[in-house]
Structure prediction request, 265 residues.
Amino acid sequence: MSHRTMSNFAGVILDLDGVIWVSGSLSQSAGYLIETLQTFRIPFCVLTNDCTCSSAQRREQLRRAGLVLSPNELVTAPMVTRDWLLKQGYSTIRYLGRVEALEDLEPIIVVAQGPADAVVIGDLFDTYSRRDLEEAAAMIMGGTPFIAMQRKRTWADGSNRYIDNGFWIAGMEFVTSVQADIVGKPNSVAYQSAFDRLGVSETLKASVVMISDDLEVDLFGAKQFGLATVYVGSGLEDQPQWLDLCVKDLNCLAREIREAANGGK
Prediction:
């Protein structure tokens, strides 16, 4: 991706953990990049597979760290799930996951027992209940659609790597012999939810870029969706041919955008 094309971004979708939020704090270069996008009026949003809390809670965490995002500028996995459920005409779900994320599922109705349009699994690490899992498994084996907010094996915060939701989803698939419908990254549903919030014409999709430190899930999925792709980080030994750009950090990317906008100077 040349400097000339860098100036033609129609929009930017950013990963959160490991890119904007690193090792429990705001990335030093995140503010500079956001300021650059705002200066050159490039619409952006942050797209995360996190399903441990609501968008409002994460935005408040970022605000306290110095980064203010509007409601449309942070898209969580529960928000993506809600968008997908509504498009499918589902209004009731049996939900297994963190209570903190429920706000992003509204107006979907969560039922504690009885029939539901779907079983939805989010983050279960702090809310594990064998009884809930067994009841959900029985519903899935009885024909209730099985939806997973995301299915990543691990996630990284910039310093450490942790077990992710795929642990729970794979286990439920093994027990029920039913494959879950995944709505988070790398599913196109997630990128479409973020893209829709940019207010960019569908004809400009190829000029919208996904920025992440995750090649296998975030960036590969974005490329399949039709977005441009930028990897941020060091230590990338073999750059895949489909990757458009690799930068060391967000400061580098912000400088690329500013230089391109100023005619490469």
Summary: Residues 77-88 form the longest helix (12 residues). The domain at 3-49+186-261 is CATH 3.40.50.1000 (Rossmann fold). The chain has two domains: 3-49+186-261, 79-182. The chain has a mean pLDDT of 92.
